Amino acid sequence: MIKGDEESAHQIRDILCSLKEYIYYMMSSGVHEIYSGSIDSYEHEVLGRLEDIRRKMRHCTRCKLSQHRTNIVFGEGNPCAKVLFVGEGPGYEEDQTGRPFVGNAGKKLTEIIERGMQMSRDEVYICNIVKCRPPNNRDPQEDEIRACIPFLEEQIDTIKPEVIITLGLQAAQAIVGIRQPISQARGKWYKYRGIPVMPTYHPSFVLRSYTTAVRRQVWDDVREALRAAKEGR
Ligand code: SF4
User: Fold this and answer.
1) Which mutation among 62, 67, 73 tests ligand 1's pocket best, with the greatest number of atoms within 8 A of CB?
2) pLDDT confidence of residue 35
3) For residue 140, which atom of ligand 1 is closest to its CA?
4) 35-231: which CATH number, 3.40.470.10, 3.40.50.800, 1.10.287.130, 2.40.50.140?
5) What pLDDT is recorded for position 82?
6) What is the pTM assigned to this prediction?
7) 62 C-alpha to center of ligand 1: Å?
8) How far is the CA of 147 from the centre of ligand 1 (A)?
9) Atom of ligand 1 nearest to the CA of 89
10) Phi/psi class of residue 137: alpha, beta or left (left: φ > 0; alpha: ψ in -120 to 50)?
């Protein structure tokens, strides 16, 4: 392919990605009239099922995290994603916007996806164990995780990812029940309802411990997960 053609191909791919992301966004906001042949019927069906889950939790008061939230942070991304990221819970920016991983940790996660995995953020799905912000960014408590995790289970059952990447100790504990420190648990495979799970560090830990070794470990983990996702379970 000559250089000009290559650039045009990149531009067309970027436009298509943006368009698809916009359609997902509009549909997840309840605007279903824009549905067209660009999203196939299976994806449309999955989006519908995700919307049912979102509707179910709209006024959720199952746990005390409901008391101080501004927005429920449901999750976002490709409804048919092969790779699903699970963090522990929303922070301040996420609570304000209703979107997962949009603060500094979110920017780091986007960089990991784009540079480490050579994917765009809208190709994966991103969500959390608890959907409402724990006060002062504390860890979610056991009763809160117990109350909220059925929603995550429904999301996972609906999206059916090839692999799950958990971000940080809390997410790995909640999903696969690890007991060892994340530094020992990361980089190894676990299973959740038959789906391979790769725990890695939380992006905010990467920002706090910005060493070559930590960054290399995270990139190794996500690339290994991507390899498994491409090969299928
Ligand atoms: Fe409901 Fe989950 Fe929010 Fe608790 S964290 S109120 S269970 S949506």
Assistant:
1) 62
2) 44
3) 5
4) 3.40.470.10
5) 96
6) 0.83
7) 6
8) 7
9) 5
10) left
Q: Report DSSP state, residue 140.
A: P
The ligand 1 atom at the shortest distance from the C-alpha of residue 69 is: 3
Cα(66) to centroid(ligand 1), Å:
6
The residue ranges of every structural domain in the chain are 35-231
Question: Residue 40: what pLDDT?
Answer: 77
Q: Across residues 55-81, what is the average pLDDT? A: 97
Q: What is the average pLDDT across 67-91?
A: 97
pLDDT in tens, 16-36: 545 655 565 555 555 544 444
Q: What is the mean pLDDT of the chain?
A: 89
Please report the atom of ligand 1 found closest to the CA of residue 61: 6
- Going by C-alpha positions, the residue among 3, 60, 57, 51 that lies closest to residue 30 is 51
The 10 Å CB-count burial string (b at 16+, else e) for 74-85 is bbbbbbbbbbbb
**196 SS3 class:** strand
9 CA from centroid of ligand 1 (Å): 43
β-pair partners for 196:
191
> 141 CA to middle of ligand 1, Å?
12
User: Tens of pLDDT along 93-125?
Assistant: 999 999 999 999 999 999 999 999 999 999 999
Predicted pLDDT of residue 232: 76
User: Which residue owns the Cα nearest ligand 1 atom 4?
Assistant: 63
Cα–Cα distance measured from residue 208 to residue 201, given in angstroms and rounded to the nearest whole number: 11
